[in-house]
Amino acid sequence: MARQLWMLRHGEAEPHGSRPDADRRLTPRGEQQAADAGAALAVLGIEFAAIFTSPKVRAHGTATGAAQGLGKDVVLHAPLASGFDADEALTLVSAADDGGHILVVGHEPDFSGVVHELTGAGVDFKKGGVAGIRLEGTTGRGELVTLLRPRELAAIARSSSSQ
């Protein structure tokens, strides 16, 4: 059975220059994007073996906001701060049981680069957006199965509360 790598780009953050880059916090909109992402992934029935996050404040805030809806703890993973690549992604995914799902929370341009390296797809990875990649075997190649923008995640999250 295939493993899946799910990638959540951090939500909207304070502007560049407002404080050191690693310390930039989520805006209220970014906090809502994080909560919506977690709720939407829960509505979709995706159960994660682990959630890894960049230690940068905005990514960690996104991960903890999303994790509340997913019932999982968050693990800091320094390589997600900068330079995260397909090899590192495959290392994390390989630790999951067969059929397992891993969620990573981090940054651009790393995430669109990983999507391209693993699938060949070029994506516009929005802040607060999610991509899901199915990985078969040990080839290091995958298929982009999901790409959701924050607006779509919010709609999915709201769909569960209206039922």
Automatic annotation (TrEMBL):
Pfam family, one: His_Phos_1
Keywords: Hydrolase
Basic and acidic residues: bias regions: 9-28
Transmembrane segments annotated in the record for this chain: none
Highest taxon above the source species: Bacteria
GO molecular function: hydrolase activity
Renumbered residue ranges of the record's region Disordered: 1-32
Annotated protein name in UniProt: Phosphohistidine phosphatase SixA
InterPro entries: His_Pase_superF_clade-1, His_PPase_superfam, Mito_Ser/Thr_phosphatase
Organism: Paraconexibacter sp. AEG42_29
